[in-house]
Amino acid sequence: MIHTKKYNATELETEHGTVTIEGPIPSEVIADLEFHEDLVSFRAPAQQHKAIIEIAKLPEGRIIIVRDQNTIVGYCTFLYPDPLERWSQGNMKNLIELGAIEVIPKYRGTGVGKTLLRVSMMDDAMEDYITITTEYYWHWDLKGTGLNVWEYRKVMEKMMQAGGLEYYATDDPEISSHPANCLMAKIGRRVDNESIQQFDQLRFMNRFMY
């Protein structure tokens, strides 16, 4: 599958000033930008900066960023699912995962997260993909936001819906391990029925196990 990446951008006025939300961004541009020290949800900032540079180098890898002048203050990543996850077992070339989304605390609640996802889906090439995200409550910043699990889940759902992702049922053991965890997905307009059936089989791999 040929991976095309058409750049899109928009500016968003917030109470803290105007930010640019843009992408997919090439790895060399990401490398030249500062990476905000409050981007700590997944690993230390310097390590995460390196990680998204590497993702941007992948043929399917897409990095959409929130930029405050020369500093990345938020981002989301799209790439093929981890080989250890069930979602990679079908080896589907048209299934990609929203692997991470993170915004510094200063810009949370300003609409930045929703705009990140809207810009991500502006590229017509996304209509060729099934885009999934797996949400696990243990990745959520409950302490920093002061929200409980269900309040945070509602915020996450609204943000994902801004990018057209909807809730999908699954028997995946990790997702099923807590009722707040969920699978969300967007099936692009040009995805064929065979791929949709394959996705359904990945969602319910334990259906016939007794």
Verbal overview:
With 210 residues, the chain is an alpha+beta fold. The chain has a single domain, classed as Gcn5-related N-acetyltransferase (GNAT) (Aminopeptidase), CATH 3.40.630.30. The chain is built from seven helices and nine strands; from the N terminus they run E-E-H-E-H-E-E-E-H-E-H-H-E-H-E-H. It has helices spanning 27-32, 45-57, 112-120, 142-145, 149-162, 173-176, 193-203; strands at residues 8-14, 17-23, 34-35, 62-68, 71-79, 95-103, 130-135, 166-168, 182-187. Strands 1, 2, 3, 4, 5, 6, 7, 8 and 9 form a nine-stranded mixed β-sheet that branches. Helix 3 links the parallel strand 6 (95-103) and strand 7. Helix 3 (112-120) runs parallel beside helix 5. InterPro entries: AcuA (IPR024699), Acyl_CoA_acyltransferase (IPR016181), GNAT_dom (IPR000182).
Please describe the topology of this protein:
Blueprint: E1 8-14, E2 17-23, H1 27-32, E3 34-35, H2 45-57, E4 62-68, E5 71-79, E6 95-103, H3 112-120, E7 130-135, H4 142-145, H5 149-162, E8 166-168, H6 173-176, E9 182-187, H7 193-203
Helix pairs in contact: 3-5
